[in-house]
Design a protein that fits this description.
Blueprint: E1 2-7, E2 11-17, E3 22-29, H1 34-51, E4 56-61, E5 64-65, E6 72-74, H2 87-95, E7 99-103, H3 104-115, E8 124-129, E9 133-139, E10 142-143, H4 176-179, H5 181-189, H6 206-214, H7 218-242, E11 246-250, H8 252-256, H9 258-271, E12 280-283, H10 287-293
Helix pairs in contact: 1-2, 3-10, 6-7, 7-9
Length: 294
């Protein structure tokens, strides 16, 4: 039995897998407070009492893993309650089993390669769009990690606008400053047509932007177009770097809006190096499940 903990941006997903399928799965709110981890630990402890200790437990986190593999090294202004926590020891104590901490995009790509959209591929990349932009790469069957654990996962911080806005990471013009949901409200507010947009009177996330764009709002359409262009730039960069046979797409806007995926394919294909054939772009049917599986 293997226990999985996915510390997602808004939801903590926990699962218990017996090698053939999920025995139990639970979703808990993630409000960026220490109590969220307490609730997740309590769930692991309940499973331990009901099913016995698992053989191991995996923890996926939305950021860079520390060099010693114990927790979150950095996420630049996000997930403050995870900073400084030994998540490996936390999970091991709650589940009663050895634990491993992994970046969530890498975990998702590993799950996709094992039994998902990248099954059978030895070379693949993953793009996850949500609060930020997450990426991961698989080369010759191995996850790209790099000398300091940053390899392949910082695609959202590729510079795509030399005169662009400062990113919380410290860089300028990162793809996330145009294509992460945290940036959408600010981008909309800079538009001259913002005052007449429905985006001016409520929360601004991808759901609201896509709905307003579909209803004909020019402000939302422009913001969405910039986001789409940023995702395409990230994918072109990943394809140029890693030469994958398949690209896996995940995240709310890409999984729920087929027209966006079609537009993304067209942009990527038109901007690739002339000798490179555009690889398959495949939407993950169960992205968060794949993260837990990884």
């Amino acid at each position: 039995m293997i226990a999985a903990v996915d510390l997602g941006g808004g939801t903590i997903r926990l699962g218990l897998h017996d090698g053939n399928g999920w025995v139990e799965r639970v979703r808990l709110p993630n409000t960026d407070q220490p109590a969220d981890l307490d609730a997740a630990a309590a769930q692991l402890t309940r499973w331990r009492a009901a099913h016995g200790a698992p053989t191991r437990v995996g923890v996926a986190i939305p950021g860079i893993v520390t060099a010693d593999g114990t927790g979150l090294a950095s996420a630049h202004g996000k997930y403050a309650h995870l900073r400084g926590r030994d998540l490996r020891a936390w999970a091991a104590a709650a589940a009663g089993a050895p634990a491993r901490v992994e970046n969530d995009a890498r975990a998702a790509l590993l799950g996709e390669a094992a039994a998902g959209a990248a099954h059978g591929c030895r070379d693949a990349v993953l793009l996850i769009v949500g609060t930020g932009i997450g990426t991961a790469a698989l080369v010759d069957g191995h996850l790209v990690r790099g000398a300091h654990g940053h390899g392949g996962v910082l695609g959202g911080h590729v510079t795509i606008d030399l005169a662009g806005a400062a990113c919380p990471c410290g860089n300028l013009g990162c793809a996330e400053t145009l294509g992460g949901s945290w940036a959408l409200a600010g981008l909309a507010a800079t538009r001259p047509d913002y005052g007449a947009s429905p985006l001016a009177s409520g929360p601004v996330g991808f759901r609201e932007v896509i709905a307003a764009a579909d209803a004909g709002d020019p402000c939302a359409a422009a913001v969405l177009d910039r986001a789409l262009a940023s995702w395409a730039a990230v994918l072109v960069t990943l394809i140029h770097l890693f030469d994958p046979e398949r690209v896996v797409l995940a995240g709310g806007p890409l999984c729920s809006a087929p027209a966006l995926v079609s537009g993304l394919r067209g942009r990527v294909a038109s901007h690739l190096w002339s000798g490179i054939a555009c690889p398959d772009l495949v939407v993950s049917p169960r992205p968060r499940s794949r993260c837990s599986a990884g």
